[in-house]
Design a protein that fits this description.
By secondary structure, the chain is of the alpha+beta class. The chain has 31 helices and 19 strands. Strands 10, 11, 12, 13, 14, 15, 16, 17, 18 and 19 form a ten-stranded antiparallel β-sheet that branches. Strands 3-4-5-7 form a four-stranded mixed β-sheet, with helices on one face. The longest helix is centred in the middle third of the chain and has 27 residues.
Length: 752
């Protein structure tokens, strides 16, 4: 394709892709939307109403490209708590009052969008946001256990109440419902882990819902164990917001304010985090506009509440389904809404046969993906400071509520930073500092957390091009707004050098992530960028985005190399290559398709040097990808860059099976002739066009069949390869990758 697909009328030419993707998203969205409404304490149909309104509004207002919006599980606990608080424990009474809060939340979001407040999300520590999602996942799991067992218990206003009701739920367990719930739970986990082609084509939530209907007939379940749908949607399916009651009862105003603040904060933070994550798996690498998205959310939320719907935010699961299904523009969201509208009016009776236990199983899986153990291990890998903040925030949310827990998490971040920056009590006790000096230093450090990190901005020329050199002090989440504003206002194509000076004592995890994301944006925009000064900081862990402090003593006491580092160092010496054990965030300078996708991309144990007349690099690589943000994917990758090769071989990709099929949008699949080796059956070849299709000799085909998981990509004459079904390659497999590089050079670059 010559250009990335656009939204609006121009995007309609991609209707075949978006229509099919919209249909597949609708099959996922149907059970999810019903379940989210139930988890929120609202009538099930309101989830579908929300998803339909989102799909009808976002394609015309949204600032994203492949993001699918609608009700989200992340807000279900907040909606349920708000409903119970406003209704005095009565869900039916609290629901119309909650709709007023949702409408006001939408209006607030519209105002914030015009104030360009979308960037304020960076003020929140990354770890606090991830802890919030993990706590929400735990809440969802605990609250869905009773319906999974068939226990009909009233909703509890807090998590402690839900936990204390679990023994009662076990006593009231309905055997038939529990069997359906247990089978559904097993299926949703199994199908999401299954790698068979048929499992990729059928959405697991749909399978669980359909089988749930079948089991419901087998066990002849009573209607109270099934989803309740209105007989006439227009007459009794839409609940109007109770504006009159709210205005006439001043005692509700404080509760409405608390709900609005909670929804605005969680809605905005989760939405902006989701669109940022989905942008990173967009095959076309387009960048969403957070302020336009915030405005679209505001309009959608206000309209949704008027028609009795829930809050609307971008959803990770539905958006990743859209990408996997080949969706290209926001019209996929529109088609998703049209299919849901069709289901609502044509298949309402079938929807009403879905057991609540099957929906509970789907929600438990969604909750598990938010709080699985990998979330904790990933945070711990970033740093012990982060796991303290993470656990503190999770416990605080479970013990209080979402808003209070987030504020406690922010306070924990501040206390950790102050503890790291301020000399300990022993300096007062041994006389090196007076108590007054210690308090003065504590206050100075506290103010520095919120002051601008920018020391100086200098405009100069570099290689004949305009270039900005910005010197910085400490960079932490609380002072990023000032830096972000300056960087956003710099001319787009001018180069940037950021220098962390000696006055910068700390860079926290959020600051490191921000600097890495800015580096990625510069690379994507063809903008020169350099980050200097990090070599003077001690890295808390091996993770490239861990916090760092200036400490000469710690810098001299670097941890010993791991066993993997020792192995890779020995192999580098064997191949006469240089070796760098450092963990760094990867920069995709050759624009490889595989390296485009995902986030948290890092390379480790890099060996590099001259090889076959070019530059070879072999390294361990990891990344995460939506919706499993916390699960690392590992490979050992080799690249070969031979000067002058860009005109000798056209870009092409050889992949095993359907691997990365949805991401190869820059290529066309080339027809392969049948052969005796089975290459055409096992591998797929992608190129720019049929004329540029590379030739594959029989010995090359045989080599690929000997190693049936090889992935080979060539961009501008630079080769990249790895074993798709392997994680960290062994010494034998690394030798094979070097051999592949040699064969590639002999096959395609003989004249170079």
């Amino acid at each position: 394709m010559t250009e990335a697909p656009q939204n609006g009328l121009k995007g309609l030419k991609h209707w075949r892709y978006d229509l099919l993707a919209g249909m597949q998203v609708a099959l996922v969205s149907l059970p999810l939307s019903l379940g989210i409404a139930i988890a929120s304490g609202a009538p099930p149909v309101t989830g579908l109403i929300s998803a339909i309104i989102a799909g009808l509004i976002f394609p015309f207002l949204g600032g994203a490209y492949v993001t699918i919006s609608g009700p989200a599980a992340g807000l279900a606990p907040a909606l349920l708590a708000g409903m119970l608080m406003l209704g005095g424990g009565d869900l039916a009474a609290g629901y119309p009052l909650l709709l007023v809060a949702i409408c006001i939340t939408g209006l607030v979001q519209i105002v914030l969008a015009f104030m360009k407040a979308g960037r304020f999300a960076i003020f929140l520590p990354v770890t606090v946001v991830e802890a919030m999602l993990a706590a929400i996942g735990l809440i969802i799991i605990i609250k869905q256990l009773p319906p999974l067992m068939g226990a009909m218990l009233p909703a509890a206003s807090n998590i402690l109440g839900s936990v204390t009701k679990l023994p009662q739920a076990a006593m009231q367990m309905h055997p038939g419902v529990f069997v359906i719930g247990a089978i559904s739970l097993f299926l949703i986990f199994y199908l999401n882990k299954c790698r068979h082609d048929w499992a990729r084509k059928v959405p697991p939530p749909l399978v669980v819902a359909v089988l749930g209907i079948a089991f419901g007939f087998v066990f002849n379940l009573d209607a109270k164990y099934l989803i309740t749908m209105p007989e006439d949607l227009l007459k009794n399916g839409i609940t109007m917001p109770a504006f009159g009651e709210v205005f006439s009862r001043p005692e509700l105003w404080w509760g409405i304010l608390v709900v609005v603040i909670t929804l605005t904060l969680i809605d905005g933070v989760e939405s902006l985090a989701t669109i940022k994550a989905i942008d990173k798996i967009d095959p076309f690498q387009r960048k969403s506009d957070p302020n336009v998205t915030l405005r679209a959310m505001g309009v959608s939320n206000s309209l949704s509440s008027i028609f009795g719907g829930l809050t609307i935010i971008p959803g990770g699961i539905k958006s990743s389904t859209n990408v996997d299904a080949g969706g290209r523009t926001l019209w996929a969201n529109f088609y998703n809404a049209m299919f849901l509208l069709l289901f609502l009016f044509v298949a309402s009776d079938i929807i009403a046969r879905i057991p609540l236990a099957a929906i509970a199983a789907i929600l438990i899986y969604v909750g598990w993906k938010l709080c699985e153990y990998k979330v904790f291990t990933k945070t711990y890998a970033i740093g012990r400071d982060q796991i303290v903040i993470f656990v503190t925030t999770v416990v605080a949310i479970l013990a209080t509520d979402l808003l209070a827990g987030i504020l406690i998490g922010i306070a924990a971040e501040i206390l950790i930073l102050l503890y790291l920056l301020t000399p300990s009590l022993r300096f007062v006790l041994n006389g090196r500092l007076t108590a007054q000096q210690s308090w003065g230093l504590l206050w100075t450090n506290f103010r520095s957390l919120f002051g601008s990190p920018i020391i100086n901005i200098k405009e100069q020329q570099q290689n004949g091009h305009p270039h900005y050199e910005i010197t910085l002090s400490s960079v932490v989440c609380f002072n990023l707004l000032a830096l972000d504003k300056i960087l956003a206002n710099l001319p787009e194509k001018h180069g940037v050098t950021l220098i962390i000076t000696e006055s910068g004592r700390i860079i926290d995890h959020t600051g490191m992530e921000y600097l890495h994301q800015f580096k990625e944006e510069c690379l994507r925009d063809g903008r020169a960028f350099e980050l200097q000064g990090l070599e003077n900081f001690f890295q808390f862990t091996q993770h490239s985005l861990s916090a760092r402090m200036q400490d000469a003593t710690l810098l001299k006491e670097q941890a010993k190399r791991s066993q993997r580092e020792e192995e890779m160092a020995a192999l580098a010496a064997q191949y006469q290559l240089a070796f760098k054990p450092d963990t760094v965030s990867i920069v995709n300078e050759h624009d490889f398709i595989y390296l485009r996708r995902g986030t948290d991309k890092q390379e480790y144990h890099v060996m590099h040097g001259s090889f076959l007349g070019g530059e070879v690099r072999l390294f361990d690589y990891s990344h995460t990808a939506a919706p499993a943000y916390y699960s690392n994917h590992w490979h050992t990758i080799i690249t070969l860059d031979v000067p002058g090769a860009q005109n000798s071989v056209a870009d092409f990709v050889i992949v095993p099976g359907h691997y990365l099929e949805r991401y190869l949008v820059d290529f066309e699949e080339q027809k392969l002739e049948a052969d005796s080796y089975g290459f055409a059956e096992h591998y797929r070849l992608y190129g720019k066009n049929e004329q540029a299709k590379p030739t594959l000799r029989s010995d090359m085909k045989q080599y690929f069949m000997q190693h049936q998981s090889l992935y080979l990509e060539v961009r501008n004459g630079v080769m990249m390869a790895f074993l798709q079904d392997k994680e960290l390659a062994t010494a034998k497999e690394i030798a094979m990758l070097f051999d592949l590089a040699r064969r590639f050079k002999e096959e395609y670059l003989q004249q170079v």
